[in-house]
Design a protein that fits this description.
390 residues; alpha/beta; Aspartate Aminotransferase, domain 1; Aspartate Aminotransferase, domain 2; two-stranded antiparallel ribbon; 42% helix; binds pyridoxal-5'-phosphate
Length: 390
């Protein structure tokens, strides 16, 4: 640190210069996050000083968190449930697994080697969680549609199983597990079913409203005990805003998660009330209709991208269920790297070598797609020429 401070204007310039190095949103095609809604930015700014780790002080902010959670519970079919706003999908998934472990202990079913059944498309946040908690993941293969198959789940259940995780919108492929069918096989065993809807939670309810044939995945499905949903993704809130929601109020007691921390139902201690304010502001401002319109536009742009890809000769790895397009492009890793040097950010797949993945979120408009397609074709062409010359 310098002995003397810099004028605020100089610091502002330094920060502006750093932010100018970030890739601008219209070139970001790999992220489920987008520019937060202006009402979220305003609310976050107003609440920048707040800390939900101390609710004796920030009573009004806590009220906002409760109200945001109530809105999310209504969206996900269980107004009488409970939950917390957290830092994102990873923390939400962690808390759900902790609640499942506690539930197994309470029911006298917790063994020395607890297992959680997951599909091979489960998000990598679970790898961190299982490593941290000493839980063994039991990975079951997905079916031809890249979904967790209920019959494989049932076969994988053992006396050590404390939970099953289904995914409502895998981040890599945008595939939605048939949560209702999985719940039907899991529930009779008394095992906790967690649904990771970090990616799909702010899409599927609205996509169903516009008539798309996606399954129910929420707390209204019998047997679903907890759901992760992320306001900082398609919920247009500022980062870091995640949420974990539970079917039963009594699960959501502080010592369900961590013994001896009566005031906290989250992993983080000090945590931003700004994220709660942003989440609440967007939910109140857009209402269901606002989200439906955004979702409709995202799906229309998804269709537009698929058509443009087809016209350029690119097929798909999987038909998009969400607004995530996974195109079949040879040498995908190299194409992605080359696009990156040209300031186009796409991602690839851990499962398929020839997949370029594009998330068609709010900033990925037709204009962006029209600019991206020639860039993709050029990168593909250059990589093919380089490969042929080797
Ligand atoms: C399905 C899913 N689960 C969990 C996560 C982790 O969320 P976060 O990065 O907010 O911790 C993501 C992030 O993309 C995700 O898509």
């Amino acid at each position: 640190m310098r002995p003397t401070g810099l004028p605020a204007a100089a610091v502002r310039d330094e920060i502006a210069a750093a932010l100018a190095e970030d890739v601008p949103w219209p070139r970001v095609l790999n992220s489920i996050c987008t520019a937060p809604h202006p009402v979220a930015v305003e609310a976050a700014h107003a609440a920048a000083h707040t800390n939900l780790g101390d609710v004796r002080i920030f009573r009004g902010t806590k009220r906002i968190e409760r109200a945001a959670v109530a809105l999310l519970l209504g969206l996900l079919g269980r107004p009488q449930g409970a939950g917390s706003l957290v830092s994102g999908g990873t923390e939400a998934n962690l808390l759900a697994v902790l609640a499942a472990r506690r539930d197994a202990a309470t029911a006298g079913r917790l063994t020395e080697h607890p297992e959680v059944v997951v599909g091979s498309t489960v998000h990598f946040s679970f790898d961190k969680i299982f490593a941290a908690l000493g839980i063994t993941p039991v990975r079951v293969p997905v079916d031809d549609g890249l979904r967790l198959a209920p019959v494989s789940v049932e076969k994988a259940l053992t006396a050590d199983t404390i939970a099953v995780v289904a995914t409502a919108g895998s981040s890599e492929l945008g595939v939605v597990d048939k949560v209702d069918e999985i719940a039907a096989v899991v529930e009779p065993h008394g095992v906790w079913l967690h649904v990771d809807a970090a990616t799909g939670g702010f899409v599927i309810p609205f996509a169903r409203d516009i008539g798309l044939p996606l399954p129910r995945f929420d707390l209204g499905v019998d047997g679903v005990r907890s759901v992760t949903i992320d306001p900082h993704k398609y919920g247009l809130a500022t980062v870091p805003a995640g949420a974990v929601l539970f079917r039963d109020e009594e699960v959501h007691q502080a010592d369900s998660f961590f013994h001896g921390t009566p005031a906290h139902t989250t992993f983080l201690g000090t945590r931003p009330g700004s994220a709660a304010a942003a989440t609440y502001a967007v939910l109140r401002h857009l209402g269901r209709e606002g989200f439906v319109e955004i979702t409709r536009a995202n799906y229309e742009n998804t269709r537009y991208l698929v058509d443009r890809l087809a016209a350029a000769g690119y097929g798909l790895i999987v038909q998009p269920e969400l607004n995530i397009v996974v195109a079949r492009v040879p040498n995908a890793a190299e194409v992605s790297r080359l696009l990156g040097t040209r300031d186009w950010i796409v991602s690839t797949s851990t499962r398929f070598d020839d997949a370029v993945r594009v998330v068609v979120t709010r900033h990925v408009t037709r204009d962006v797609i029209d600019a991206f397609l020639p860039a993709l074709v050029a990168a593909d062409h250059d990589v093919r020429a380089e490969v042929a010359a080797r």
